[in-house]
Design a protein that fits this description.
The structure holds three protein chains of three kinds.
Chain A (H helix, E strand, L loop, with lengths): L5 H40 L4 H15 L3 H11 L9 H27 L2 H9 L4 H31 L11 H12 L3 H32 L2
Helix pairs in contact in A: 1-4, 1-6, 1-7, 1-8, 2-4, 3-4, 4-6, 6-8, 7-8
Chain B lengths: L5 E10 L2 E11 L4 E5 L6 H8 L7 E6 L2 E2 L2 E3 L5 E3 L2 H8 L2 E4 L11 H11 L5 H14 L15 H13 L5 E5 L7 H17 L3 E5 L3 H7 L2 E6 L2 E6 L1 H6 L4 H13 L1
Parallel strand pairs in B: 3-10, 3-11, 8-9, 9-10
Antiparallel strand pairs in B: 1-2, 1-4, 4-5, 6-7, 11-12
Helix pairs in contact in B: 3-4, 3-5, 4-5, 5-6
Chain C lengths: L3 H35 L3 H16 L2 H11 L11 H26 L3 H9 L4 H31 L11 H12 L2 H30 L10
Classes of the chains: A mainly alpha, B alpha/beta, C mainly alpha.
Chain lengths: 220, 259, 219
């Protein structure tokens, strides 16, 4: 038997690529939700009202210190008992988005904290509404440290998508396992999935660095 | 002059286009105390750092106790770059005290002093500790053995650093602007320790310093450094009292005005 | 509820063991890989970079499956228990991230420390073990704590290679009892508790190691 059966590898490539679309869908849909939800959490956490900021801070800390897998189980197995039926894919996207929203919230918080105090005071002195203050003055300045950090979490999310195979989402890892259990050949499918993640995460990391470099330039 | 313990022969050091040491020649006799003064950027510290092998040199030879430091004789008698072990052997005769102390922050004063004797000389803990206690008492820190560097003042840290260097029993001690990082009122305690060393031990000392008063009182010889070589040298009375070169006069009068 | 707890605790004990041994392996591989990464010897550096990039880039679950399903087959024929796979996989995975943390920590040690070691004629190996590493480890504690918590969270994935850890027990009990909400909530709380223990432990360790160092400073 060959060490690595190239014909077999070629024959399973279409199936793997098809499943990789789900991987990409989960990653990008999850990321889109996470960056919006994270911003909301960050703003809530900075709120002057303790009834809002404390529970949000607790929630962020709790979700960040517990496994994504159990959180996904929770969404997929507990929610239907209370009438909220999610498909595996929906539960997966929601779970990974919620998990990473708690990380992006901390990124926003660090970015907002990096905006000099004087800017906040100027906003108050100009009597701007909180919404336009955030949108026009604060966020543009906070963006420089924020964008690369968000990019790193996009890469991390991509690599966490195989976790969703545990709730029967057929992403690329689950597909590879299915192929393996049918053909009793694990080497090719699992190695190919590894290469898929390696290439994609290296490419994304490269893009993040490009963005970072460009931000360095415009900041001067 | 007796056989020199340190000899620089045509030593040149460049950083890119900048020549920091320019065909420098210097002999230091055993037990001699040499002060090196001069404007900043003139290569004073580089001289000490080259002798400590912290900087490589581009040309020339440095000898310690008649043995080449950065070179060693090959079979045919020519000098070739020194191996790491040869360098370590010759370097063992030299100790150095830095401007920024460079104490090990995770060790207390005593540990700082016993570390190298135990790890490098293979001394037993008991002997190393006894010697370290004597040395720390000598620099006036007998009460601070268990203090960590961050719990000591700058002057106290520098005195620990002196004890740490002495614990290796060097023949030559290098002092690289050892009071420059200290507040003026703390300089005295460090200089007093160096004074005691000079009078009680037969150590060879090379010091780069901005303390002209100390150089005049303490050194056997003062070298005025300018543009990578020794521009003028002599006894303290000659150099400070009757400098011959224009550059030396200009430097000394500028220093006097500043004080 | 009271019946669930002992079984979940059994699973949690497996999680604790995997976390402990995995952390040890992760720390060791992080230090070794960081050294390789900083080595002046080309092949060593490339070996370290390859290790770091592969284990950071290919997703943990893929690595666990590879170790568990591919390695026992020809041409490798290396069979490991699920427990060993869990420790090796998690340790090497987090170790690759830890290598970058350690590299930063080693480079954060002041240049003067190296010069002092040269002036005291220390051998480079002694210099690293006695002077540089202790300072670097202290600097690596805060980012390292986050990585250890990542490791703890990631232990849940070993349930997918049949190891009966906390996640595995939770899923098993869920199928047997249908007390879904209680079981998963309890599992989450247990993980949270373990994470806080790591947090607290590392903070105490940092305090202990930096005793005498932060107070005072240069006066």
């Amino acid at each position: 038997m060959n060490f690595f059966d190239w014909d077999f590898a070629l024959s399973i490539l279409p199936d793997l690529l098809k499943a990789s679309l789900n991987t990409l869908l989960i990653t990008f849909a999850g990321f889109a939700i996470a960056i919006v939800l994270g911003l909301l959490l960050a703003i809530a956490r900075r709120s002057r009202h303790l009834w809002l900021s404390w529970p949000v801070a607790g929630l962020i800390e709790f979700i960040r210190s517990t496994p994504l897998l159990i959180q996904v189980y929770f969404l997929f197995y507990v929610f239907p008992n209370y009438g909220l039926n999610l498909t595996a894919l929906q539960a997966g996207i929601l779970g990974i988005a919620l998990h990473y929203a708690c990380y992006t919230a901390e990124v926003y918080r660090a970015g907002l904290d990096a905006v000099p105090r004087g800017q906040w005071e100027a906003v108050t002195a100009l009597n701007m509404s909180p919404l336009s203050a955030y949108r026009q003055i604060i966020l543009p300045q906070a963006l420089r440290p924020i964008l690369p950090a968000l990019g790193n979490y996009l890469v991390a999310m991509l690599k966490d998508t195989p976790v969703l195979s545990a709730i029967t989402v057929v992403e690329i890892m689950q597909q590879a396992k299915n192929i393996g259990s049918e053909s009793f050949r694990y080497l090719e499918p699992i190695t190919m999935v590894g290469i898929f993640f390696l290439l994609l995460s290296l490419a994304l990391a490269w893009c993040v660095r490009r963005v970072e470099d460009r931000l360095e330039v415009t900041a001067r | 002059m007796p056989q020199p313990i340190v000899r620089f022969t045509d030593v040149t050091k460049r950083y890119g286009n900048l020549t920091v040491l320019n065909k420098l020649n210097l002999d230091v006799a055993p037990g001699e105390k040499v002060a090196i003064i001069g404007p900043s950027g003139s290569g004073k510290s580089t001289l000490l750092r080259a002798l400590m092998t912290l900087e490589s040199i581009d040309e020339g030879v440095i000898c310690v106790d008649d043995e080449p430091l950065t070179h060693m004789p090959a079979r045919d008698g020519r000098l070739v770059p020194a191996s790491a072990s040869h360098q370590r052997k010759v370097r063992g005769k030299i100790g150095m005290v830095f401007q920024s102390f460079n104490l090990f922050p995770h060790m207390c004063a005593l540990q700082n002093v016993i570390e190298a004797p135990m790890q490098v000389l293979g001394m037993g803990r008991k002997e190393a500790t006894e010697r370290a206690e004597d040395l720390l008492a000598m620099v006036g820190l007998g009460e601070k053995l268990r203090h960590f560097p961050s719990q000591l003042s700058g002057g106290q840290q520098q005195r620990v650093a002196i004890a740490r260097a002495l614990a290796m029993r060097p023949k030559v001690m290098l002092f690289d602007e050892v009071t420059s990082a200290l507040d003026p009122e703390l300089c005295g305690e460090v200089l007093n320790v160096i004074r005691r060393l000079g009078s009680e031990h037969n150590l060879t000392m090379l010091m780069v310093t901005h303390q002209m008063g100390f150089a005049r009182e303490f050194a056997d010889r003062v070298c005025f450094f300018h543009q990578g070589c020794i521009h003028e040298q002599g006894t303290p009375d000659q150099l400070f009292g009757n400098p011959q070169q224009e550059r030396t006069k200009a430097f000394l009068s500028a220093v006097n005005e500043a004080n | 509820m009271t019946d669930l707890f002992p079984l979940l605790l059994q699973g949690a004990w497996v999680t604790v063991q995997v976390t402990f041994w995995g952390s040890l392996l992760a720390i060791v591989s992080a230090v070794i890989a960081a050294l390789g990464r900083l080595s002046p010897i080309g092949p060593l550096r490339w070996l370290a970079i390859t290790y770091i990039e592969i284990f950071r880039g290919t997703s943990l679950l893929v690595q666990l499956f590879w170790l568990y399903f591919v390695l026992p087959m020809p041409p490798f024929n290396v069979e490991m228990s699920a427990f060993t796979v869990a420790i090796v996989g998690l340790g090497l995975h987090i170790g690759a991230y830890g290598a970058e943390v350690m590299r930063g920590a080693i480079r954060s040690v002041a240049k003067g420390q190296y010069e002092a070691c040269t002036a005291l004629n220390m051998h480079p190996s002694k210099r690293f073990l006695r002077i540089i590493l202790p300072q670097a480890l202290l600097a690596a504690i805060p980012p390292g704590t986050n990585l250890l918590i990542e490791l703890l969270k990631n232990t849940s994935l070993v349930s997918l290679i049949t190891l009966s850890d906390l996640a595995f027990r939770a899923r098993q009990l869920d199928q047997a009892t249908f007390m879904t909400l209680e079981i998963f909530a309890l599992a989450l709380v247990l993980y949270f508790f373990m994470a806080q223990v790591i947090n607290l432990g590392m903070r105490l360790l940092e305090k202990r190691l930096s005793r005498g160092r932060m107070r005072g400073g240069l006066q």
